[in-house]
Structures are given as C-alpha cells and as structure tokens.
Specification:
three-stranded antiparallel sheet; 125 residues; 3 helices
Length: 125
C-alpha cells in the first residue's frame, strides 16, 4: 500500500513540475502605417514591443504610427485613387470587423474610393 501511495505522489509531483513550466503563448501583432500607403507588418511575436519594432523595420516607407493587437486583427484602408490622401485603420477581435471599421474611418476622413491596403491577424489568438 505504501508503494502505491509513493508512486502516486511521485507522479503528481512530476506532473506539477511539468505544468509549472508551461505558460500560455502571449503572441502579439502590429501594423506600422506611413504616408502614401506605406506599411509594415508583424504577427505572432512574443510581445507587443517586439511586434512593433518588427513592423516598423518592415515598413515600405516612413511609418510613424503603429497599431498593435493581441488575439485580434488590425486593418489599414486607403483611398485607392489618392494613396497619399485619406486613410483609416482599426483593431478588432475579428478580421471582418477590423476591415469594416478601417473602411468607415477612411470614408469619414474624406476618402471616396477606400480599399483595404493591408491587414494582419494574430494567428495564435
């Protein structure tokens, strides 16, 4: 009886050490936005700071604004006829919601022919 108790206790102890080392992934994403439809993106990074830095580094122009997400999506819309003109962006739990909101902001900012330029979703979310 004592042997069974020790074996059970050993298994429980080993399992608790194993589970203590496991932490949930805190993946993050970012979309860097710049003038004239410039953008850079990063997703599934360990934290927001790393995602922001990577998105700015990947920017195709001069990106000064960064939108981040954790377990969600970010979308960026521009006026298709005036890429250096009105734009909009949004962060939302779902891609469709982020895209719709980004388009609304683009139109609200004066866009006439707004289209989605870029989007990212945190795939681990």
């Amino acid at each position: 009886m004592r042997g069974i108790h020790r074996t059970s206790l050993s298994i429980v102890s080993a399992a608790s050490f194993f589970l203590a080392g496991i932490s949930p992934m805190q993946a993050a994403g970012a979309l860097a936005i710049g003038a004239c439809a410039a953008y850079g993106y990063a997703y599934d990074y360990p934290d927001s700071d790393a995602a922001q830095a990577a998105s700015v580094e990947k920017c195709s122009g001069d990106c000064k604004q960064v939108v981040t997400t954790k377990k969600g999506c970010v979308a960026y819309a521009i006026d298709g006829r005036k890429p250096c003109g009105p734009n909009g962006f949004a962060n939302a739990p779902r891609l469709g919601e982020a895209q719709n909101t980004a388009l609304k902001f683009c139109y609200k900012n004066g866009g006439k022919d707004c289209v989605i330029r870029a989007w990212i979703c945190d795939a681990k979310g």
